[in-house]
Structure formats: structure tokens, C-alpha cells
Automatic annotation (TrEMBL):
Key words of the record: Repeat, WD repeat
SUPFAM superfamilies per UniProt: Quinoprotein alcohol dehydrogenase-like (SSF50998)
Protein name: WD40 repeat protein
UniProt xrefs under SMART domains: WD40
Gene3D superfamilies, per the entry: YVTN repeat-like/Quinoprotein amine dehydrogenase
Keyword Cytoplasm part of the UniProt annotation: no
UniProt xrefs under Pfam families: ANAPC4_WD40 (PF12894), WD40 (PF00400)
UniProt-listed PANTHER family: F-BOX AND WD REPEAT DOMAIN CONTAINING 7, WD40 REPEAT PROTEIN
Domain Anaphase-promoting complex subunit 4-like WD40 positions: 261-322
């Protein structure tokens, strides 16, 4: 039976992560807390808006209302990586070779490991940034589509058009597909080799959480009473195929999804604080945590694949040991 070690904090949890296998929780008030032989805390920002982990999971990368992009290591050492002045840094992403992307207003930047930055200006505000798993390339979610840039090279960006507001962005692990979350209750995707469109609709609520399965054959999403899991194993992705619906609960909404690092299993967080693990192959469910005080907003697996950190909209956080 899984065991839950609760970690009660105050405020909205933006990100849960394992940094050097230590559980970290980044809150909207700018505080970051972690559990390493007792509770430790540091104030990184005046209001934290976005957070991610570095490629090697050895740093937490954050962006805030104070215009700063910060990194935090497991020892508690914080470093300012960049600043957007007085503008809010609304999105951050980490990429290959120590590169970091961040966005504020209509601008996006890539900061290389040597500290140099490259700026990209867009006609409308940048809502999300992501690095491609192949090569030095970033994707930008914007109004009416997405834009692809090659920060290390000169040349025109690639424009992918689709009407509507695109709010978040992710590449498939093999780099073949690009998927955006939308302001309407839908996902949109492109097959990058030929620009073919993929429409993923029918959600009752906005999709705020996406997670690729270990080998990239599945994309799990929130925004419904079940985790909606789209098949990406074929050359055309989910087109013409029905998604899996895992962990269905009629009176609750899925608010967070986090695929297991090596197996086709997804951790599902709900709006009542419950967390469940479900296997793709046979929909077998395991209850990981009973309902709590707030909607699950963030989850992350550790590198040993046995612990799951979670955070909620009310600061109701913790670590689940699935081995008990």
C-alpha cells in the first residue's frame, strides 16, 4: 500500500520536482520549500509564475513577477540567470547544453550556458515556451498558432498557424510532433515533417496539464473527469484514433497528469486532491492518495521511480512512496 508523507504549506503550488532526488515545491508567493533532513525554504521571487527542472534534474529554473529568471540547486544555492526588467516572466523552459528559454510579454529569449542571450520579438504575447528534444530549437505558443526558432542559427522562423489563443506548448519526445494547449477546451497539434494538423477536442474544461509517456507513444492530458490519453505511436499521431480515458470519476475533474518515467502508467491528480495511478494497458487503478484540501496542481516522479511528489492549489503538498 502506498504511503503518503504530507507537507503542509501555505499557497498555490506551481511546481513539484525532484532536484538531485530531493523533493522541491515552488509556490506562487515566490517561496520554494524542500525536504532534505528537515524542511528548508528560500524566497526566490516576489511572486513566482513558472518553474521547470533542468535537463539533468539538478536545478530548479523559475520565472517571476519581479522579472527575474532564477536557478536553485539542491544545496539551496540560488543564482539569477537573467532579467526581463520590470516585466513578468510568464514562462520558462530548460534545454540542451544548459540553455534556458524564458518569455515576457511579446518577447522570448534563449540564454545559453555561457550567459549570452538571444531575443525573439513576436507580434502578440508569448504564452508558452518549450525546447525540442532534437537539436537547439524552441517552440513558442502564441495567438493563432506556434512559432519555431533555431536560436543558434540565423534564418527565418517556422510559423505554424491555427486560429485561437494557444497557451502552452510541448514537443513529443522524438521531436516529430508539436502540441499546444488552447484557451478553448482543446489541444492542437502539428506533424512537423509536413505541417499536418491534429485537432484534439471534446474536453469539458481547459487543458492545463500535459505529460508524455516514457517512449512518447502516449500524451496524457487533464481537463475532463478522466485523464484523456492520446495515441502517438502511428506516423499521423492521434488522427482518426480515439483516446484512452483513464481514472474516470464522474463527479471530479482531472487537474494534473504525470506519466511514469519508464512504464506506461500515469499518475492522475484531481480537483478534490485525490491522486491515482492507472496502467494504460488494462486501466488498472491504484489509489495513491485520498482526497485532500485542494486541486492537485503539480506532480513529479523521482529518479528511482518509486516516489511521487505532489502539490495543490492550497499548499496541501507531500510525497507518496508507491512501494509503501
Amino acid at each position: 500500500m502506498p504511503t503518503v508523507a504530507p507537507f503542509d504549506l501555505e499557497g498555490h503550488c506551481i511546481a513539484a520536482a525532484f532536484i538531485d532526488n530531493i523533493p522541491f515545491f515552488a509556490l506562487a508567493d515566490g517561496m520554494v520549500h524542500w525536504l532534505d533532513h528537515g524542511q528548508k525554504s528560500v524566497k526566490l521571487h516576489d511572486g513566482l509564475l513558472s518553474a521547470t527542472t533542468s535537463a539533468g534534474n539538478d536545478l530548479l529554473i523559475t520565472g517571476g513577477e519581479d522579472g527575474k529568471v532564477m536557478s536553485l540547486g539542491s544545496s539551496g544555492t540560488a543564482q539569477e540567470l537573467a532579467s526581463a526588467g520590470k516585466k513578468w516572466v510568464t514562462a520558462v523552459a530548460s534545454g540542451p547544453q544548459g540553455a534556458v528559454a524564458y518569455a515576457s510579454g511579446r518577447n522570448a529569449w534563449v540564454r545559453f550556458a555561457d550567459g549570452k542571450t538571444k531575443e525573439f520579438v513576436h507580434p502578440r504575447s508569448v504564452e508558452g515556451v518549450a525546447f525540442s528534444p532534437k537539436g537547439m530549437r524552441i517552440g513558442i505558443a502564441r495567438y493563432n498558432g506556434a512559432t519555431l526558432h533555431f536560436p543558434a542559427a540565423e534564418g527565418k522562423p517556422v510559423e505554424l498557424e491555427w486560429a485561437g489563443a494557444h497557451t502552452g506548448i510541448t514537443f513529443s519526445p522524438d521531436g516529430a510532433f508539436l502540441v499546444t494547449t488552447m484557451q478553448e477546451n482543446a489541444l492542437h497539434g502539428w506533424k512537423l515533417v509536413d505541417g499536418k494538423h491534429m485537432r484534439m477536442t471534446g474536453y469539458p474544461a481547459k487543458v492545463k496539464s500535459l505529460s508524455w509517456s516514457a517512449k512518447g507513444k502516449w500524451l496524457a492530458s487533464s481537463g475532463a473527469p478522466a485523464a484523456i490519453v492520446w495515441p502517438f505511436s502511428g506516423k499521423d499521431g492521434p488522427m482518426g484514433k480515439a483516446p484512452l480515458e483513464l481514472g474516470t470519476r464522474g463527479n471530479s475533474m482531472v487537474t494534473s497528469v504525470c506519466c511514469h518515467p519508464s512504464e506506461d502508467i500515469v499518475a492522475i491528480g484531481y480537483d478534490d486532491g485525490m491522486v491515482m495511478a492507472v496502467r494504460f494497458a488494462d486501466s488498472k487503478e491504484v489509489l495513491l492518495r485520498r482526497p485532500g484540501k485542494g486541486a492537485i496542481t503539480a506532480m513529479a516522479w523521482d529518479k528511482d521511480e518509486r516516489r511521487l511528489a505532489f502539490g495543490s492549489a492550497t499548499g496541501d503538498c507531500g510525497v507518496i512512496d508507491i512501494a509503501g
